[in-house]
Amino acid sequence: MIASGSEQAYKVYENDRVLAILDRFPIAPGHTLVITKNHYQDYLSVPDEDLYELARVSKIVGTAVKDGMGADGVRLFTNVGRAASQVIFHVHIHIVPMWEREPNFTWFRRRAELTPSAANYVLSRIKPHLYERLI
After folding, report:
1. Which end of the chain offers a freer environment for a tag, N or C, measured as fewer CB atoms within 10 Å?
2. Where are the extended beta strands (E) located within the chain?
3. Is 94 an active-site residue?
4. Are strands 18-22 and 32-36 parallel, antiparallel or unpaired?
5. What is the pLDDT of residue 118?
């Protein structure tokens, strides 16, 4: 499991309650997930103290993804239950950068597995903007 550190992930940010990682099969370059370290099945089952941290970090990471990827906006969403297309039953917030015009990311293949070189490129774009906000 990624939250416990037993599975490898491309970490964007981590603290004692939450972890932000690049999506393994991104919708768009910079697609990031913010997850809780404690296990909760979905957003509606998260206690307020962890929900606050999930929301706070999602805002900070969302802004860093938008700025770092040169996006015009971001989509933040979560799915609750199989009927709502939830596939991974551990709470996570998707942060997906969006552009008014299709950006020129010739290396990107929609919903293909993220390569190490693509992940390192994306991390190099996002992390400088992230740490500006965390200081």
Report:
1. C
2. 11-14, 18-22, 32-36, 73-77, 92-98
3. no
4. antiparallel
5. 94
In the chain, the amino acid numbered 121 is Y
Q: Among 31, 39, 90, 92, which one carries the catalytic annotation?
A: 92
Tens of pLDDT, residues 57-92: 999 999 999 999 999 999 999 999 999 999 999 999
Distance CA 43, CA 36 (A): 10
CA atoms of 58 and 62, how far apart (whole Å): 6
Residues in the chain, pLDDT under 70: 1-7, 104-109, 134-135
Is the whole model's pTM more than 0.85, yes or no? yes
- The residue among 90, 88, 99 whose CA lies nearest residue 28 is 99
